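Bit of a strange request maybe. I'm writing a small parser for structure token strings and I need a real example to test against, not something I typed by hand. Could someone generate the tokens for this chain?
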Amino acid sequence: MKKLAMMAILFAASMAASDVSGIWDGSGGIESAKYGMVPLTAQLTLIQSGSSVTGTYRRGNGKPGPITSGAANGGQITFVISSDGSTATLTQNSNGQLQGKITSSTGDVFDVVFTKE
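Reply from user aminoacidic:
Good idea to test on real output. This should exercise your parser:
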């Protein structure tokens, strides 16, 4: 019985999402009807407190914009970039990377993979 309880505790701990706080460098691209896949880079600076996520987002060499309405739930992170209204949905993969999409207020979709520095 003790072994079963210990295994349940270890399983639950392994399923808990890790803290995503830190600096994340990303690369990916935006699909353009005119140019095809346009490569882009980005950087996230995230601060996680419980399930709340804040920080900044910078695309390319642009000015960082604040992240609001951020949440971490399991291995998924969602947030809004308040400077331009973009929304992000990222999932932490088995390699520890954040992978997903950032959708701009104009409908452009940035497919991206972030790796922690």
